[in-house]
Design brief:
By secondary structure, this protein is of the alpha+beta class. It has one domain. Helices cover about 20% and strands about 25% of the residues. The chain is built from 2 helices and 5 strands. The chain has a 3-stranded antiparallel beta sheet. The longest helix has 11 residues. The chain is globular, with a radius of gyration of 13 Å. The N and C termini lie far apart (about 35 Å).
Length: about 70
């Protein structure tokens, strides 16, 4: 397997899932550390994307709810 940017970022997500975020765009997700990150098609992901944090679950600015109650 060739170590491309998306594979390297997925390996980093396995090592430290709390450091990365997943932003869902339908059939594609953005796996980012806040500065950079690759777009990955969901069917080509080698990790469980549900275990990586989703910033939308933590903060909804229009609802006034933050934390685990925002899910």
């Amino acid at each position: 397997m060739k170590l491309t940017a998306d594979v390297k970022m997925q390996i980093e997500a396995i090592k430290n899932p709390s450091r990365l975020n997943v932003i869902d765009y339908g059939d594609t997700v953005l796996l980012t550390d806040g500065w950079k990150g690759p777009y990955i098609k969901k069917e080509k992901a080698i990790i469980n994307l549900e275990k990586i944090r989703n910033p939308r679950r933590r903060y909804r600015p229009h609802s006034g709810i933050t934390g685990s109650a925002a899910t």
